[in-house]
């Protein structure tokens, strides 16, 4: 029995500034890649105090603001998924 191929998400390298929004403030960071479903973020050094689970949204320079959920954290990198796929997809289609 053959299995259906798993559809890979196309990630595009993207280095641009962004702002993470959480209940008690904002944090400037930088993206390292983006896809239709989410974005990879490099956190600035010294941001170990930030609980990634508290991130509510992200503003990406020249692209827009998106509600997000944290998918993973490795060292100073986090992966965020867009909570609402349809509006994010329209915005990203226009940008990408």
Question: Can you give a write-up of this model?
Answer:
The chain has a single domain, classed as predicted glycosyltransferase like domains (Thrombin, subunit H, Beta Barrel), CATH 2.40.10. A six-stranded antiparallel β-barrel has the order 2-3-4-7-6-5. The model is unreliable at 1-6 (pLDDT under 50). 11% of the residues lie in helices and 46% in strands. Strand 3 (25-34) and strand 4 form a beta hairpin. The protein is globular, with a radius of gyration of 14 Å. The protein has one helix at 85-95, and strands at residues 12-13, 17-22, 25-34, 38-42, 57-60, 64-74, 77-82. The longest helix has 11 residues, at 85-95. The N and C termini lie far apart (37 Å). It is mainly beta and 96 residues long. The protein has one helix and seven strands; from the N terminus they run βββββββα. The relative contact order is 0.21. It holds the Pfam family PilZ. Residues 9-95 form the PilZ domain. This is PilZ domain-containing protein.
Short characterization:
By secondary structure, the chain is mainly β. 11% of the residues lie in helices and 46% in strands.
